[in-house]
Amino acid sequence: MSTWMSPERSPAPGPQPHPAGPQRWRHRVALVLGTAPLLLAPGAARAEDHHTEALAQALLVALHEASGVPGLSAAVWHDGRLRWQGQAGWQDLAARRPLGPETRLRLASVSKLLTATGAAWLHQQGRLDGDAPLARPGYPAWDDGTRITPRQLAAHLSGLPHYQATDLMRGRQAHADSRHAAQHWLQGRALLDKPGHRYHYSSWGYTLLGAAIEEASGLPLAEFIQTRIAPGLAIGPDQTDTDRETHSRAYEPGPMGWRVAPPHDYSYSLGGAGLSATPAALAAWGGRLLQGRLLDSDTLAWMTTPSRLADGGIARHGADAVGFGWRLRDDRQGRVTWFHNGSAIGARSALVLWPGAPATSAALLSNASWVSAIDDSARTLAGLFRPSPAEASAPALACPAAGQRFSGRWGDQRLTGVVQGSPGMPGPCPRRLVLDRPPTGFDNGGPPRSPAALSLVALPPGPGVTRAALATPLGLFQLEATGDSALAGSVAGREWVLSFDTR
User: Fold this and answer.
1) Using CB atoms within 10 A as the burial measure, which of 45, 64, 166, 449 is most buried?
2) Half-sphere exposure of 460 (CA within 13 A, CB side)
3) Are 473 and 66 in contact (CB under 8 A)?
4) Is the pLDDT of residue 11 over 60?
5) What pTM does this model have?
6) Is CATH 3.40.50.10230 the right assignment for the domain spanning 75-369?
7) Does 391 have pLDDT greater than 70?
8) Domains of the chain by residue range
9) Using CA atoms, how far apart are residues 309 and 146, in angstroms rounded to an integer?
10) How far apart are the C-alpha atoms of 98 and 257, rounded to whole Å?
11) In 3D, which of 141, 161, 345 has the Cα closest to residue 262?
12) Among 232-236, 423-427, 430-434, whose mean pLDDT is lowest?
């Protein structure tokens, strides 16, 4: 994460952008339930790919309509290739220019993953010891002789603070490189704790890590990332505020709706929040990492091993373990994922990786500051391409009929309403849930919303519905059939349960 934060190619052209304008969300939820055959002939496999891609695009459009953000762009790399990319909404609201597959968006704190990988690459080369204290000229010096390791910087164990009130002017100055930014902003800055003793999220730590990479590589950080870590990909320094048509504008909520965010130069935190990319490039970069094309297996294991505090405990960001830059979490099927999300002025971002076979890399980027479960949304999109073997024996829910009543709860709030059809949505069972009374707690920090779709798209193959994706103003979430005509899952940290009246 960066300035705005919570405590926290050559692909085939994708589906056309959906330039839906912002609306005010009230109390309608669109429900789309789809299924697919389990065994496919070669000719049918391409048809199934098309079906899955159409569902992914429908989910992205539903999230765009439910959230009201100006634009969303996503891509999924799966099993060795880029499977899908899609866009929904606008690159430029005033000009009514839709997002396209080549539009770059701010990565915000997802930038940290490329910086950490760069440090790990130098560690592999023997040019930067990731576990040894930094001791090079030009680094900020602390009076007590404190020394900090690259791992402590990457895992937020350095003791450095995050952005502070004294940093309000930082985005008005351009820095030639990370060493200059570190010397300008970090001299004399007090530490919150001794290095290694506690987790303190700090983008300033990545400014210092970027400076260490520059000294070890002999290259400016931007050039190092573009030539060594992400060569040939549409990934580089953020140029959002330069009026380049290749970059989306950045938006923030205002009293009259979304407005263009003021210019902000992220060169002070290039390694922590200052990169931009297309989702396809970011997902493909994750695929390269999963394929062992950037780091060898030993270095990758070193990078994704949980970092340890001085007392031996595992460093954590909330419930997630923290490795060398990556956050580590098991998915609902118990499979480990590596990920990071980001928030910045005019940006919300996520990259989620599944190692192993089949490997998957999912990227989701937006061009606005909004409260969202952005990594859960990326996971849900990827779920369309990741059927689970266990689902062959999982309980399945029959498609609810139009006019059927439902009831349930979200946390301690009661949910009741009626099922409606949802014409125009893909899948054999498109549905809209019309709530009798809208739940509270869906405020995402953006302008108020009018009726919008929260889509529930069945993800696995096979007859019936075993799991589905729900689109809300806060993001996309996965629900699973429970075997009693119900769907249940965690939505923004609270349990969501829907039961359908089968009488």
Assistant:
1) 64
2) 21
3) yes
4) no
5) 0.89
6) no
7) no
8) 17-69+391-503, 75-369
9) 16
10) 18
11) 345
12) 423-427
